[in-house]
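Morning F.,

Quick status update on the modeling queue. The single chain you submitted on Monday has been processed. Sequence for confirmation:
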Amino acid sequence: MSKIDKKDRFYFNRDFLGSASGRSIRILSEYYGPLQRLERNNISDTIVFFGSARTLSREDAEQALSNAPKNADQKLIARMKMDLKMSRYYEDARELAKKLTKWSKGLKGTKHRYIICSGGGPGIMEASNRGASEAGGVNVGLTISLPFESSGNKWISDDLDMKFHYFFMRKFWFLYLAKALIVWPGGFGTLDEIMELLTLIQTEKIKKRLPIVLYGKEFWEKVVNWDYLVEVGTISAEDLELFHISDDIGDTFEYVTDFLNNNELKGPNF
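Structure tokens below.
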């Protein structure tokens, strides 16, 4: 038998796989590839952290401010001071991920349950992976190929830094195994994620009631006027019960763990 020439096989042909004709194969690979890795690592479900990639740790924010030139533009100084104020969310996300990981490690069972999962990038995503890692737990990073984000943060567990090309497949994996979601201050990406999540639950495309926390009362009440949406009739008052707004690590931890302890949520959400 003659030696197989990989060039003759379509599944080795980069031109074909990268073409419009190969798109369905690329999409399927972003379903079966993560599925294989999660099963290989014995992961049953996740707790997802959404939030800004731009949020700095307190240490980095303080260092940037202290290193600012004396003649620096006042707008730049004001920006740095705001970065320092917002760094509390990095530290809170790190600490909450640590507490949730310690709690989940104490649960009985043969599978890893309620594993911290983030978008794998810097900022809040890094903080959540970092906290889980510092607690000695496995954690997941679902990274996306972007011009300004080339790889996952260093705190993601080996074999669980999964890189996506398609945003919609990344979103699928955020929600497919999620049993709780904590949404931190963020920009367009975070707003997109929380609004799609609430839409899926409101329309019962996700039939399970999941604990959802919007962390950062001042931020969320300024960014979205929830009461006004009710007033003008674009959402109902009952829709406000889909999420919990919190400003405290202890309150969030209790809200999420009490819900998960009292509600047996197993299996995928779709």
